[in-house]
Amino acid sequence: MPPKKSNRNNCEDCKKEVGSDDKALVCCVCEKWHHINCQHVPMDDYKFLTKSDDSIQWYCKSCRGASQKLLKMLTLVSKRQDQLEEEVKKYTVD
Ligand SMILES: [Zn+2]
Ligand SMILES: [Zn+2]
């Protein structure tokens, strides 16, 4: 029996099946399929993404938003840590 992996790929946005003729991309974060129409990906972008090797990463809209939030959070945290280290230095000097 073949492994029960991705039996059928459905678009995460419209929940419809992604056929072999459909233009769709896989998000590298959630690893879900998305029709380019559902994600409003320009045809030029789609051509570029599919022409190049798979080292090019594509993020769906929701993951792009999430990763940006995460990035902001991370910079905030590292900033806070820097401040904390400065504070610690102040008190540890001497
Ligand atoms: Zn769709
Ligand atoms: Zn995604």
UniProtKB/TrEMBL annotation:
Xref: PROSITE patterns: ZF_PHD_1, ZF_PHD_2
Biased amino acid composition, Basic and acidic residues: 10-20
Coiled-coil residues: none
Gene3D superfamilies reported for this sequence: Zinc/RING finger domain, C3HC4 (zinc finger)
Domain PHD-type: 8-66
GO MF term (any one): zinc ion binding
Key words of the record: Metal-binding, Zinc, Zinc-finger
Annotated segments matching region Disordered: 1-20
Protein's name in the database: PHD-type domain-containing protein
Gene source species: Dreissena polymorpha (Zebra mussel)
